[in-house]
Amino acid sequence: MNKTVAVRVIIGIFSLVYPFFVYFGISLFPPGFFGLLLLLLLALRFGVLVKEERRVLLPVLIGFLGYSIVTTIMNSVSMLLYYPVLVNFSLFIVFAGSLRQTEPLLLRIVRAKGATISAYTPGYLYKLTAVWAGFFVINGLVSAWTTTMSMAAWTLYNGMISYCIVGLLIGGELLFRHFYIKRMNVKSS
Q1: Quick one: residue 118, left, alpha or beta (phi over 0 = left, psi -120 to 50 = alpha)?
Q2: pTM score, two decimals?
């Protein structure tokens, strides 16, 4: 596994377990510790960005950097709860921003993997990118709302329920895609 993949895996795992890490770790570590940990992960992530990613992700990383610094300085538990909100709104910015470009994010990913692109694929992936952008806004708003709840409720939503919703969205899209492709193949015959 190369360095870039390893760093992405570490950050991905950290993002997945972050709510539980905060929930169980807040009794062991001061809130500023989590801010410092985020700063370390951001430095690692920035270090493995390829040139094309820097242009797109630099504003997002700067936002996370500001959040991490404020979290560290304020040393406040309530600041820690906004990490999932920031993640969702950052993903919204990346997905929605790609809708204004020549190719939406999901189409660029499919092209980068070398997959065969049919005539209906660009339109489908444009709409799917918009669906994900909408999901990230809604999920970010719900995550923001959970910051007003108990730590247990915040952890439950941000550490489990939101991931189950992501799984349902992915599963629903795969099922829809199956029937959509079948319908498109029948139309083109």
Answers
A1: beta
A2: 0.85
